[in-house]
Amino acid sequence: MNQWVIQTNGLCKKYRGRYAVSNLNLKIGRGEIYGFLGPNGAGKTTAIKMMLGLIKPSKGSVNLFGLELRKERLRILRKVGSLVEYPSYYGHLSAVQNLEAVRRILDIPGPKIAEVLETVGLTKESARPVKGFSLGMKQRLGIASALLGSPELLILDEPTNGLDPSGILEIRELIKSMPKQHGITVLVSSHMLSEVEQMVNTVGIIRQGELVFQDTIGNLRQQAKGAITLVVSEPDKALVAMHEQGVRARLTDSGIVMEQASDDTVAVMVRCLVEREHDVYRVEERKKSLEDLFLQIVGEVRTL
Fold it and tell me: What pTM, to 2 d.p., does this model score?
């Protein structure tokens, strides 16, 4: 039986009569990289703060490693590292000195600092004052701080926010290495699917505080598959022929549309229509991007 590293049950947080998070049921398995997605203001950070015990739920429960957070908070949080919103640091101190302050609080052996700096790729910059770091380097230092306690679970809230493309790539590759190289389960939140789709196994999408999608990234990609449009002679009769073959299709102004049809199905239908003496003028595929599907799920529309 799979032990969920994170499981929330009916998790709610209410502020002034309005639910910031409502009936949230997350399930995150060991070794996963879970993308927690939604537009700004959807409730991601509020949910994460409840998972970390930083704010109390109005209703519902949080279980980490099979234990209830409310009852086993200290025991659980020893196994959790987190970076919520922007990392805090002392700008006049070096990366090593910043991590030393955290190390003393956590009572962790000194050699761990060099280890986490190597993990996040900051060994060569470890003696520089942090105020001279790029935003991406500061994010990596924040992740290094979260790794000091050798966590089994890493929770990162918008770790790529404000980064340039190269910074996003650096953080993405770092996160991808966590389960394979260190056995760490990762929850990473973002408001942009395009920034996390290449590294996550599972996606949970939150809209106005409610979880509206939770499945593998592969199944999300399946939903984003394009529609095939056939432009043929006598489309009414051609549609009947396709229905007789058990193919789901509909007639539109642009032609006969088949949603999520496989290549084999398209080939069989073209052959069938030609054999019935229909002229096939065009076969067109109209793809929907994952980002378009994400925006459709969260109810946003692209504007120029």
Answer: 0.80
